[in-house]
Task: structure prediction
Amino acid sequence: MNGAESPHPMFTFAHLSDPHLAIQSAPGLRSLMNKRLIGYLSWRTKRRAIHETRVLAALTEAIKQAETDHIAITGDLTNIALPAEFKEARRWLDGFGPAQSITLVPGNHDAYVGVPWSASLGQWADYMRGDGQQMNSPDDFPTVRIRGPVAFIGISSAHPSAPHLAVGSVGREQLAEMEQRLAELGREKLLRIVLIHHPPVPGTVKPRASLLDAGDFADAIARAGAELVLHGHTHRMSHQAIKTPRGPVPVIGVASASARAQHAHREQAQFHLYTVSREAEQWRLDLEIRGLDESALTFRTVRKLPVPLPA
Ligand SMILES: [Fe+2]
Ligand SMILES: [Fe+2]
Result:
């Protein structure tokens, strides 16, 4: 890693989530003979008016202009996991930036129904795989990418669930590996940032949309330690924490990257800009929230706040 004496700021990155790219053309009837039918109707009647291509284009442009060192995306690029949506999302990723500069984890919509790896998440493998890792199945999570002083740990909580459910889980094997990798990365004194789609603090969302093994996830974080957990799924900003012996680990969620207007309990499009620096031999993390100015279709600073890190 870079030395602790490096000038401020040491590293910057953006976090966005839940772009829910627009479905480009009507899917064939056969592909809708499952949970997708409900999802497609929901897209046609509600979601299509919320998630706008031009808002997402403005957001990606604003992040490009910010020239951050890295970009983290916490899932839900698609709506009903059609093979065409995965291809479209790959085109979007390619236009956004190179795979080594963008770290992606999938969301529940990206696993809406079971789709073969090569036609679904496999399309995004370059953006998800860990350093030096081959990625051939959803079982290849967690991923670890080291960039500057930061280790991004990618977790998949995405798997198909019954109609009307949007739950996720990490699973025992992935949790065990996450804990082991976090402990190793902690010994290397890296700033450990865990990326997961579902919010891991119980009660953040209704049970039908929750992370089923949130308790086990929090226990693993408490044992191994982490500096920050970032998530999406809620389509709104939230700032919570997981208690650990070294102090609370911040858990921060971001609004959807494509939401045109406020809807229900969700927010207009936002993204988060983080700056990592060193202060008195400690990590310092600052968050700047940038939100949509709908009239000008630009993003402006909404709030700036320091994020207290565990000791
Ligand atoms: Fe979402
Ligand atoms: Fe989600």
Summary: Residues 11-307 form a domain with the Purple Acid Phosphatase; chain A, domain 2 fold (CATH 3.60.21.10). The chain has six helices and twelve strands. Residues 52 and 71 are 21 Å apart (CA to CA). Residues 18, 20, 76, 107, 109, 233, 235 surround fe (ii) ion (ligand 1) (CB under 6 Å).
